[in-house]
Amino acid sequence: DVNIIPYSEPKQADEESILVLLYDISKVKHLEVVRTEFVANASHELRTPVTAIKGFAETLMDGAIEDTQMAKQFIQIIYNESNRLETLIHDILELSRIENETHIDVIETFDLVKVTQEMVAFFQERAEQKDIRIQTELPEAPILLSVDQHRVEQILRNLIENAIKYSGNESEVDVTVYSNHHRATIIVSDTGIGIPEQDQERIFERFYRVDKGRSRHSGGTGLGLSIVRNLVNVLGGSITVESELGVGSTFIVTLPL
Ligand code: ADP
Hints:
Layout: H1 26-61, H2 68-99, E1 109-111, H3 112-129, E2 133-137, E3 144-146, H4 149-165, E4 172-180, E5 183-190, H5 212-217, H6 224-234, E6 238-244, E7 248-256
Parallel strand pairs: 2-4
Antiparallel strand pairs: 1-3, 4-5, 5-7, 6-7
Helix pairs in contact: 1-2, 2-6, 3-4, 4-6
Bound molecules: adenosine-5'-diphosphate (ADP).
């Protein structure tokens, strides 16, 4: 995409010159496209639960409320869709907050090992409901990080939650943490459904889901991994994924110490 802008400047009397300025605007254009796409996707995602809430409330008002059984069912749907709306709004705001941050202002020192243990304990009940065993491999010594603890918690939360969500019953989730060469590494690995190779790059995009139906059914917004990637970037780290369809997925996060 090339924009040609005529440029003229007084020339020296006896010298002919041509000045060519090349601006690469592809990055700006790309950002514009990404933003427009995000707004379109967000509008669509937000509209879906609102349409359901409105529709079921209208049906109730039109008389369905008289049928107690039906009314109960519709109110449950309205409640579930409101929850979904709440999660979506939360994730969208969170994402835009992280993206607009230019500096880290909350600095505290905490132990990554302890925070990981607490996060695993938090998910224990949810894992047990699916007979999933969460195994941890953690060092004895603390790993001290001096960044906003909430960001690291959120990275762990989203990765462990996905590992459980996208795994079948009676499977295993492994959470490993170690440090070396001034880096801390977090590995969340599952023996779940896996991610097709062609989707592995795209799962970090906003609203991208391999299986929309499955993600929505389990309360997913398609924003979790894009929040994780943004958080990792803000913290100066990296994230990669290794996965095989039907075998499982491994997410590897490294953070500077
Ligand atoms: P969602 O809210 O849909 O879970 P995410 O951004 O967290 O959104 O993940 C994007 C998509 O990546 C998911 O919809 C799912 O298809 C895929 N995915 C993420 N984590 C895993 C995993 N551990 N195993 C298999 N697929 C995964």
